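Repro:
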Amino acid sequence: MNIVLLGPPGAGKGTQAKRIEEKFGLVQLSTGDMLRAAVASGSEIGLKAKAIMEAGQLVPDEVVIALIADRIGRPDAKRGFILDGFPRTTKQAEALDAMLAEKGIKLDHVIEMKVDDALLVDRIAGRYTCAKCGAGYHERNQKPKTEGVCDVCGSTEFKRRADDNAETVSKRLAAYHAQTAPILPYYRARGALKSVDGMAPIDSVTSALSAILAGKPAAAGASKAPKAPKAKRKPKSPAKARPKAKARSKAKGSRAKVPAKKAKRVTKKAVRRVKRPAASVRGKVPRKAAKALGKRRPAARRK
């Protein structure tokens, strides 16, 4: 399994590369370490790199690629490697792919550690270590239990890296976004790029990376909580349903259904009431109205 870890300075690539190395039996490859080792060994590539560095120039890509090709050919790299911080440009990515293709090797995973720039500046600018044992601390997020005393060894001396300040970190982030970020589309187009949240706790980032390397789907090391099952509705009892039915029939009034026979009887009574006016009104009905009702006006009594 061959992996490339991408991310800006301070994203935690080195820490995670070390954990992956131990868990999966891979070899962590740092171009800086390889250059120093090559110079110390006095090899042909090392001597060439030494001359370039002493002249104050950047080591060209072909020299770095040659160092990587030599390192991955050793027995301890048979199970795979982790490239931490390389490639940094699209040109380097293309050169790396060409070299690996010649050796019949391919990259299995390219993982980007996403970070928030403002939070990353705060994370780096606030960190410091114990001068004696190297235990790490942070001005706001991880202070010693007793102020000024190391939790691990009890030392009262601490140190801070010269480049761990807001101005320097901001410049390094700007350089990353200008030079390295453009290679993300290069690997995305090849279907090799995956991402994890580099701002998550260290153990959560490790879990997310392990899930990707094991072939398990994971967004950022966290799985969604299962949805709670919907509560079943209780069936309504017939006793409660009846009053509602009665209430509906009362509310509807004339809309309520009436049996056919009863409807006829009601209609006949209504007709009779219209045809036969009340006794108090019979003698006073005009002749024309009486005819309309089917009754003649009663003759007036003789005096």
